[in-house]
Amino acid sequence: MSRFRIPPWLPRTRKVRLSLAVAAAIALGTAATAVASADTSDVVTITSVTASTNPGQLTISVTSDSALTALNVTLASVTEPDALSFSLSDFTEEAGGSDTSGTYQLTSPITMTQLPALGTYTVEVGAMDSGGGVMTDDGTSLAWLEQPAITLSASQTEFSYASPSIVFSGTFSLDYPDGSADTTSVSGQSLTLTDNLGSSSAMTTGAGGAYQVTVSQPDNDAAYDVTFGGTGTINAATSNPIDVSAVQDPARVTAQASTTQLDYGQDLTISGTASYDPGSGYVPLGSSTVEVFSEPYNSQGTVLSATTTTNAQGGYSVTFPDHASGSWYVYTGGLPGNSFLDQLLTLAAVATAKVNVAYPVSISGLKATLSPFAVLTLTGCLHDSNSGKGYGLPLRVEYATRRTGPWHVLKTVDGTGSKLCGTGPDYGSTFDYQVTVAVAAAYYRLSYPGSSAYQSAATGPVYEAKTLTKITNFKISRHTVARDGTVTVSGRLWQDAKGWHPFAGQRVLVEFRYKGVWYYFPHKPVTSASGSFSGTFQAYATAPWIAEYRGGSAYFACATARVTVRVTAVRSAQVLGPGSWQARPVAGQVLADTQLRLAG
User: Fold this and answer.
1) Which of 551, 505, 553, 507 shows the shortest CA–CA distance to 530?
2) Three-class HEC string of 485-512
3) Contact 180, 155 (CB under 8 A)
4) What pLDDT digit, counting tens, does each position of 463-514 carry?
5) How confident is the model at residue 578 (pLDDT cuts 50, 70, 90)?
6) What does the DSSP 8-state code read for residue 332?
7) Residue 198, C-beta contacts closer than 8 angstroms, at least 6 positions apart
């Protein structure tokens, strides 16, 4: 096979005009020493060089001023500078061409036998006509590479909750550049399954070029294909695309709370069933996540309270401590925040009936004092775990004759002061209640019976008692007197010390009521050894009179019934007001006004 060698001094351009002497030197393959003369030579133009990788064809189009006499082609690479050469005789001119304008195609395409080394080759072309015109071209490359082909199929093009995965499979095949099959290099090749939404899965071909990959969560409305990136000896390739989409099935869920009333922090169980309709009616929604929230879900930070998974029959049950009253919101199916499930199932949501949570109540530090007028004062600290919202709770003051009861309600009280008590961070508030007792000696406690919002509570008992007293034989010497007249008041004071006994050495007040105010005389008779007392007092105005013993640290007060003393012969001009009286207003309570009747 003759060769057309391009001398190294010849510029590699697409169009070169040479003198006849230079052209002759090229044709002879000798080093040309001549330079271009002033003589005009023919023009040869290589209009195109086309290299087809399959089936190894070369096509060259040439125009010239005179008949084409030489067309030399060499395939060269860095490692193979003279890999393969052709001359004009190796080409066949296509029909319709002429000796000055034609397209020449290799009569026999290149084979692997001719060019066994795969790679990219530069196509060096030289053409000359009979008039001495010459042109060279080395701007075309022949990618003498294996040609891959990738097939792709899918187990399904629609995925659903019942069938959420897609198996992609196919074959990777190779043809040598001359079109013959390469069956030995198809295994062990790296392929990538990608979709137009950015997901990808790497895989490697097996025997015979087969491959398979399972996508457990396909992208909805995505186009998948398989790509081969190519190597130095194999071209890149892409398979046919396959479009896949999700089928969304309707889902539903039920939820029941184990109770509608429980104590703060006590376990609550929520149970129910989940189902979905794949198109043939509702069936159990098995192995599905169930989420429980204390409020309707929103994307602004709703806190998940509990989660579980349905069994094969779609049933679920979840138990957790409850700390707040209200309904619980149960979600399954296309769960909030789960984009894949959202594609396959509608969001199923349901709320339970309201669950009331009773907060703990603590009544601590109870102290009691009992006044002589039978007023019981109870102080202490009221505390609950609901940020102080229970401080208006109605508490019962209860009493019993024995420490263990039975207990009887004396009165209901409520309200607290502004002073904090207890320990932080959830402090309590102090209370100060006053009630009138019903018996002389008893155990007392504060209790809360409990409600849907607060738990029951009771203090330990405190004991308070005083000795009963009474005045008998109360007498006023005269019931009618003139103005500033005097009367004698007498009586007898007793104490109940394991039976009634005279109460000696005690001061007794003599009092009268005028225009709504009780007055007492500064002179306070003292009881004798027999408990008797007596005194003379001036009558200023018509009024009811009593004798009163105001009690002490260990004794109840007592008072007599009222006896009216009338004052006569008083002219209005002569009436003097209380400011001129020796009597003084009573400070505090007067037992006669309380209607107090204590049991022993």
Assistant:
1) 505
2) CEEEEEEEEEEECCCEEECCCCECEEEE
3) no
4) 999 999 999 999 999 999 988 789 999 999 999 999 999 999 999 999 999 9
5) confident
6) E
7) none
